[in-house]
Design a protein that fits this description.
single chain; alpha+beta; L,D-transpeptidase catalytic domain-like; 2 domains; 3 helices; repeat
Length: 317
Amino acid sequence: MKQVKKFMLVFGLSLCMIMPVMADVHAEGTTSSNDTQNTTETTGDNGSTTQGENGNQTGNTEEPKTTPETPKEESKPAAKPVVKNGFINESGKIYFYKNNKRLNYKGWKKINKKIYYFNKKHAVVTGQKKIKKSYFLFNSKGKLMTGWQNVGNKRYLFKTTGKLGVIGKRLKEDKSKNVQGYKSDTKWLILVDRSAHKVYVYHGKKGSWKLKKSFLCGNGKASTPTVTGTFKMGTTKGRYFKARYFDSAPARCWWPTRITGGYLFHSVLYYPSSTPARVMDGRVGVGVSHGCVRLKLNNAKWIHDHITKKTTCVIYN
């Protein structure tokens, strides 16, 4: 009995020593579910992920990529309809429109201070045209041409009415074909064509003359023709080379410039007064004078102001 009691005592003491150890082992080997869920993994700079509460990932996670929207093209405004106005070329024919409507003009018509002629089909006439026994010339846009014009290999004078006047050769087939052969003691050279009633003013020197001015004149009539020849202006005897005016009763002539002797460039005839106010005889483009070369007032003044003594002046038929 004593041995049995002793065994029981030793066995009891052993159990007392083992139980605390088992409790510690159980505590270390188990965790509550709440502790497990609240565990957070941390990452360093090596790029590992960090797990936050409830298992959500935080840290170096990439945001989802989004595709950029393609900008929408702005719609272009509708083109405005073309409104036809003025002269319109249609298949080589020129018509006149107003607000998209073709105007059925026929015959003579003045538009924007220019004169045109419309045929029976309402198109403007271009080139040469015979109208009621008279010849007229229109440019490529239908405008009526006046004055000296080159047609083919000839030169024609169309009066201010547009009707064909005298027929002459091209200027280059006249004296002016040799214009480069003339010399002058100044930078100016003047040619006067008596039959064409025209004055040509050149600038430059022998061999390189360039036409600077040209204008109609009223040279001598048949009974008192303008002298022909080659002259150095202002070098022959005379009362003056230039003046503001002189009187040739009953008229006054403005801005005279002497050619040779009693032959002058000067204005058309005015009634005597302190200024050139009232024209007595303004004709040019015809033989009308007593031998001088009459010019429109502004042309006479231009020669007066620019042409100097010893300028060569050639007068020819």
